[in-house]
Amino acid sequence: RCVLKELESLGKALYGAKLIAQRFQVRNCSHHKDPVSGSTCLLSMIEEGNPHHFFIATQDQDLANKVKKKAGVPLLFIIQNTMVLDKPSPKSLAFVQKLQTNELVPEHQKQSIVQLKEKEGLAKQEGEKRRKRKRAGGPNPLSCLKKKKKKTQEGQEPSAEKKKRRKRKRNRVKAEAVQSVRKNEEE
């Protein structure tokens, strides 16, 4: 409501911006009786960790810098007719990192883990770094190949040494003959 009041007070120069702002859902702020500037109102709405998960869309650099100092508030701005979501501020990244580490293990458990590691001698020492051990590999695959036979001497004939093998012909029995043999066996 404070932003709409400010846009009304600025006159016809920002009439289009006022029409656009009126299309969106209007959130109630704590200063509806005595309106303050738009930037002050927006900053008051995102206090205490942005409980309603608001995005701030602004072209005002002063307001953008103040929003970047608060963790967990996404910032939108316009560049050449395109809405751009600004990258998370360092404050937001640090806040998320802190949350992730705190959610995994409570603080009292972290302290007890450190004490147990020191007691067992598992605590990392800054001077020592473990080297990755090389594991024994298998044999060289090229050394496992079968050895080639030596060529025969030129004076000898290779055909004389080798015996010719005859291929065995396979007689196939017709299916009818097999059935007749089975019938005879059953009787």
TrEMBL record:
InterPro entries: Fcf1/UTP23 (IPR006984), PIN-like_dom_sf (IPR029060), UTP23_sensor (IPR057776)
Superkingdom, natural source: Eukaryota
Keyword Nucleus appears in the UniProt entry: yes
GO biological process terms, semicolon-separated: rRNA processing
Domain UTP23 sensor motif region: start-end pairs: 130-149
Broad class of where this protein is predominantly found: nucleus
Biased segments, Basic residues type: 162-172
Keywords (A to Z) from UniProt: Nucleus, Ribosome biogenesis, rRNA processing
SUPFAM superfamilies reported in the protein's UniProt record: PIN domain-like
Gene3D superfamilies in the cross-refs: 5'-nuclease (3.40.50.1010)
Pfam families: Fcf1, UTP23_sensor
Family to which this protein belongs: Belongs to the UTP23/FCF1 family. UTP23 subfamily.
Role: Involved in rRNA-processing and ribosome biogenesis.
Protein name as annotated: rRNA-processing protein UTP23
Species of provenance: Pygoscelis adeliae
